[in-house]
Amino acid sequence: MQGLESSKYKNTLDCAIQIWKREGAKAFYKGTVPRLGRVCLDVGITFMIYDSFMDLFNKVWT
Q1: What is the pLDDT of residues 21-57, one digit of tens each?
Q2: CA max distance for the chain
Q3: Domain-by-domain residue ranges, the chain?
Q4: Rounded to a whole number, what is the distance in angstroms from the first to the last CA of the chain?
Q5: Does the model's pTM come out above 0.85?
Q6: Checking CA distances to 28, which of 4, 11, 22, 55 falls within 20 to 30 Å?
């Protein structure tokens, strides 16, 4: 529910400044490690599927 705290910040810059003052620079990187883990898995799976399909297509077309 975004409307409940709509007056908490004036704008985006005010939000960033308040977060910096309250929680420090580390607050902007919360959740980075789990996200990077997921992205690495996604990219690895994508390349594996792509490589498998390319091998299959090369066998069919050549």
Answers
A1: 999 999 999 999 999 999 999 999 999 999 999 999 9
A2: 64
A3: 32-61
A4: 57
A5: no
A6: 4
